[in-house]
From TrEMBL:
Domain annotation Transposase (putative) gypsy type: ranges: 69-136
InterPro entries (UniProt xref): Transposase_28
Record-linked Pfam families: Transposase_28
PANTHER family per UniProt: OS03G0100275 PROTEIN, OS06G0360600 PROTEIN
Species this chain originates from: Lolium multiflorum (Italian ryegrass)
Cleaved signal peptide residues: none
Residue ranges of coiled coil: 229-263
Keyword entries, A-Z: Coiled coil
Keyword Coiled coil: yes
Domain of life: Eukaryota
Designated name of the protein: Transposase (putative) gypsy type domain-containing protein
Length: 356
């Protein structure tokens, strides 16, 4: 599918200048000095034979099979083969060629890779990259650059490393050469074939704002969900604390209930024992009353008998006073007086004649 662009018809890509008034600045004959070769040798890039090929009088780059076009200033800033997978993916997503990146852009990419792999301990993260960097066209009002026509810049609202880059690297686009491509077994795809005349077209992937807005929205929602989850966890903690307190009170109440039941059993036993004692006492009192009643009845009978005897004896006593008592009569009366103490039947009349 062809890339989507925001180009205006009859204008230069990235400008509002008519095409007939714009100069397209492209390839020139490579001019690599001895000092440049010494620099490459010092960096160890000339140890392997045929790893680099310096072009002759070519005014347009045509890399041999198995080689890729690069620049001295790209190599100095850390570019090498095999091309890092993050750089391959970046070129694919942005739809650009390697030679269309400026030296400072290459340095930004390599610093970011080092940051992720050596400091964060992870693979270079594409969302983090788009949060920090954006792409812009590298052109002036009347000039469109084909070589180095794309710049990678740090977003102004992002706090990033305060790396001082030169505003421009003079003559870097004239110091191009060929570097031998290398591959690894894990490499799934390579960068697009070289096209020195490829037009730089702005894609929607250059602008990460919609994606970042979505990510920021998701992040805000996540923070809200996280805060809500924290509140729920705090409420759950308070509920668990209240539940523990209620469980402790319930346990105390259960112990109090068991103690009350035990006390109730003791009280019931005491009540039963008291009732039994009262019943026994009542029975004993009843028995004592019955005994008292029997004794009282006997005593009353004896008193009645004595009264009857007294009534019977009184005339005899009076007679004895009037007449001398004979011994036989006195003995007789004493003998029968003892028998008279036994209770006669109620209603029985006792007279002195009964003793005679």
């Amino acid at each position: 599918m062809p890339p989507r662009t925001k180009l205006i018809k009859h204008t230069t890509p990235g400008t509002n200048t008519p095409m007939d008034k714009v100069e397209i600045f492209g390839w020139e004959r490579s001019k690599i000095s001895n000092q440049d070769q010494k620099t490459l040798k010092k960096l160890g890039m000339l140890k392997k034979q045929d790893s680099l090929i310096f072009p002759g009088d070519e005014s347009f780059s045509r890399p041999p099979i198995g080689y890729r076009v690069t620049f001295i200033d790209h190599l100095i800033r850390g570019l090498s083969t095999p091309i890092h997978e993050f750089l391959r993916g970046l070129l694919f997503v942005y739809g650009i060629q390697l030679h269309q990146l400026t030296p400072n852009s290459i340095l930004h990419i390599l610093i970011f890779i080092t940051l992720c792999e050596c400091f964060l301990g992870t693979h270079p993260h594409w969302s983090l990259w788009k949060r920090i960097f954006y792409l812009r066209r590298n052109n002036s009002r009347n000039i469109v650059y084909n070589v180095g026509g794309v710049c990678i810049c740090v977003r102004p609202e992002v706090d990033y490393f305060d790396v001082k880059f030169p505003d421009s690297v003079q003559g870097w686009h004239r110091r191009w050469l060929y570097i031998q491509e290398e591959y690894v077994n894990s490499q799934e795809y390579d960068i697009a074939p070289f096209d020195g005349a490829a037009e730089i077209l702005r894609r929607r992937s250059w602008d990460a704002e919609p994606v970042m807005k979505h990510l920021i929205k998701l992040g805000t929602q996540f923070i809200g969900f996280r805060d809500e989850a924290d509140d729920l966890r705090e409420a759950l903690r308070r509920a668990e604390k209240c539940a523990d307190a209620l469980a402790a009170k319930l346990e105390q109440s259960e112990k109090a209930r068991e103690k009350a039941e035990q006390d109730a059993v003791v009280v019931g036993d005491l009540r039963q024992r008291l009732h039994n004692a009262e019943s026994a006492l009542s029975d004993k009192v009843s028995q004592q009353i019955a005994v008292v009643d029997v004794c009282s009845s006997k005593l009353k009978r004896r008193i009645k008998n004595i009264d009857k005897i007294n009534d019977a004896v009184t005339p005899i006593a009076e007679k004895m006073i009037d007449e001398p008592l004979r011994v036989d009569d006195a003995f007789f009366h004493e003998y029968h007086y003892a028998d008279a103490l036994d209770a006669p039947a109620e209603g029985e009349k006792v007279t002195i004649d009964s003793f005679l």
